[in-house]
Specification:
- The chain is an alpha/beta fold.
- The protein has helices spanning 5-19, 38-50, 70-79, 97-108, 161-169, 171-179, 183-186, 189-199, 203-206, 230-247, 254-262, 265-271, 274-277; strands spanning 26-31, 58-62, 114-115, 119-120, 129-130, 139-140, 146-151, 211-217, 279-281, 291-293, 302-306, 312-317.
- It has a 6-stranded mixed sheet, with helices on one face.
- Helix 1 packs across helix 2 and helix 10 packs across helix 11 (254-262).
- The longest helix is centred in the C-terminal third of the chain and has 18 residues, at 230-247.
- The protein starts with a helix and ends with a strand.
Amino acid sequence: MALPPAVQHISTHILDQLSKSAVRPLLVALQGPQGSGKSFLTDLVRTHLSGPPHTLNVVVLSIDDLYLTHDGLVSLSQRFPNNPLWRGRGQPGTHDVELGLKILMSLKEERKGLELPRFDKSLFNGEGDRLPSDGTGTIVHPPVDVFIMEGWFIGFYPVNLQELETKWEGIWAEERRLLDLDETVVGSKEDIIAVNEALKGYVDMWAFFDTFIKKLEAASSPGSSISSLSMIYKWRLEQEQYMKARNGGKGMSDAAVKLFVDRYIPGYVFFADGIFKGYIVPSDGKTMSRTAAYPQWLGRSLRVYIDERRNVVGVENF
């Protein structure tokens, strides 16, 4: 049976990167928007690479499984009661970054007995909680050939305040208009600054990854009256309707799906281009010094373009 094109492109890319590196495991970051099928795609890639003729030891983790415990999420929302972006899980700041760093270091050092975390989104009436590490989760058996972490904002970098201000007055104002975004849902400038600060804590985690795979929709034409991010709403709504059709109608209404996706839009607008450039703090004008963090995956990564039906329409290296 022929492989889906996306699986073929990504698997070929990973095998090529493996052939160029003597270090194991190859650490792969895979980013894609909500509803784009990244989790399903990652599972297909793992199945393909784990089977003959490759027979690789492939381990997969969603960044969702690094969410704070339920108590931690509640504590965060109570400390920042006016920030709608931290009312519940999902955003930078709602994950246990230290746990993520320990997992990545354990993989690099080939430690035995590593149990991957699991977050059950059905607990606490959908608020979710991390399950205990009791030996019933996935146990990693080294040596691992490929480790893939997937998530919607993997590789997003914080921005300096000057760039944040520019985006707030420019592209963010335009997206708010095109997508009819309510500040009570997507947050104020101060709320986004708070998430930006939290995102700085993830940079050490991103530094582990050797190669990057970005799955995204083809951009809308310049001057279009439709946001290039509008496809995320369509995909996420399709997912919800598919689930409801099979579980007796349990799930979010169409309006609730819109509000759900709205909370994620600031991340794409303010932080997504960090995948291609990292983080740079310009000099203060008094000195020539500046702070910078550049992704080590630049020059050995893959961009996969998909259309509204999630069909591959192009690939390019970056």
